[in-house]
């Protein structure tokens, strides 16, 4: 049984003004999140990602459909039952949401006190968590004395205080610089691997998905339009809305307007080579082109690494004897997907 299971979940908000139209933020979403997953939920702003998270921890109630968390249907639970449920769900936020009037130590201790944890257990647990996130020396500091990365590490420690099985991370690195983001992602990866916590990540950042997620769901207009293994969804998105989103974070085949610019700047035959883990490497392709006497220039694209699996698209301008180019491309098609974008007006390849 999935740890979190959604079936035909819809959430509709009433109109913002009298006579207006109700807003459907989540539209018939079905999704299974297994224990141990790091599940990324991605999409444009307004796609419904944050609303979905608020439904999972019952901060919002569903309009229709079913949500099971650890086998328990959460729709219709009494408030006292919801409080117990939320003890098993930690949450970290984009803007940290720490208590500025409390020390780091007391911020982490807060959920334990709310859960009425015996006093003699609170101290060791807080100390353990501050050590885990590398902030033992900041226990007496206040949030205003911390950097953004340190604040988020406090947020992670606090979210783990009650030993939850699920951690919800809503744009938890969006306010951080790239270096600090990588530090926080490495910490979340440890949370998943060492504690076995299932993490649901709401994000629009490719780095987060590449580094952390094992599964991903793409949302558009309140619907999950595609979901599955991160590598499969990002290397070969099937749905048009998925392709649009992936194209904003993965440089693939150039668009018509981008191709027009490339044709103005580079002469020769322009082709896009699409690489996928398990086929030939870009180094091998470059060697084979050079051995065939073909000049080539990398003009667009990039290679991506998702948890050790590599894919990407490289657009090259090829120059040389046209029959030799044809023969080389024919040879490469056995291991690399090739999109032939034609010869520029400034040259036939020679």
From TrEMBL:
InterPro entries: AAA+_ATPase, ABC_transporter-like_ATP-bd, ABC_transporter-like_CS, ACT-like_dom_sf, MetN_ABC, MetN_ABC_transporter-like, NIL_domain, P-loop_NTPase. Residues 4-246 form the ABC transporter domain. It comes from the Bacteria. Gene3D superfamilies: 3.30.70.260, P-loop containing nucleotide triphosphate hydrolases. SMART domains: AAA (SM00382), NIL (SM00930). It holds the Pfam family NIL. One of its GO terms (molecular function) is ATP binding. Keywords: Amino-acid transport, ATP-binding, Cell membrane, Membrane, Nucleotide-binding, Translocase, Transport. This is Methionine ABC transporter ATP-binding protein. It comes from Herbiconiux daphne.
């Amino acid at each position: 049984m999935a740890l979190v299971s959604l079936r035909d979940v819809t959430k509709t908000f009433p109109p913002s003004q009298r006579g207006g139209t109700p807003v459907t933020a989540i539209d018939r979403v079905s999704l299974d999140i297994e224990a141990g997953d790091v599940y990324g939920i991605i999409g444009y702003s307004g796609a419904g990602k944050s609303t979905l998270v608020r439904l999972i921890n019952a901060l919002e109630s569903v309009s229709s459909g079913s949500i099971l968390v650890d086998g328990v249907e959460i729709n219709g639970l009494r408030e006292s039952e919801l409080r117990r449920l939320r003890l098993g769900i930690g949450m970290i936020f984009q803007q940290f949401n720490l208590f500025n009037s409390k020390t780091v130590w007391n911020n982490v201790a807060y959920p334990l006190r709310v859960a009425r944890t015996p006093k003699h257990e609170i101290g060791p647990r807080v100390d353990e968590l501050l050590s885990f996130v590398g902030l033992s020396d900041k226990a007496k500091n206040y949030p205003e004395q911390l950097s953004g990365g340190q604040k988020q590490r406090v947020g992670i420690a606090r979210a783990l205080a009650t030993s939850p099985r699920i951690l919800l991370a809503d744009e938890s690195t969006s306010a951080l610089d790239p270096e600090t983001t990588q530090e926080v992602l490495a910490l979340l990866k440890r949370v998943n691997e060492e504690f076995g916590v299932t993490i649901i990540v709401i994000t629009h950042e490719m780095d987060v998905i590449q580094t952390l997620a094992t599964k991903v769901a793409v949302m558009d207009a309140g619907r999950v339009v595609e979901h599955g293994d991160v590598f499969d969804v990002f290397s070969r998105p099937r749905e048009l809305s998925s392709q649009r989103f992936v194209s904003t974070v993965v440089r693939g085949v150039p668009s018509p307007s981008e191709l027009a610019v490339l044709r103005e700047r580079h002469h020769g035959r322009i082709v896009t080579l699409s690489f996928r883990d398990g086929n030939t490497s870009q180094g091998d392709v470059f060697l084979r082109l050079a051995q065939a006497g073909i000049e080539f220039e990398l003009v667009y694209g990039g290679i991506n690494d998702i948890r050790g699996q590599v894919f990407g698209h490289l657009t090259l301008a090829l120059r040389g004897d046209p029959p030799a180019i044809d023969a080389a491309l024919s040879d490469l098609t056995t291991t690399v997907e090739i999109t032939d974008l034609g010869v520029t007006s400034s040259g036939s390849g020679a």
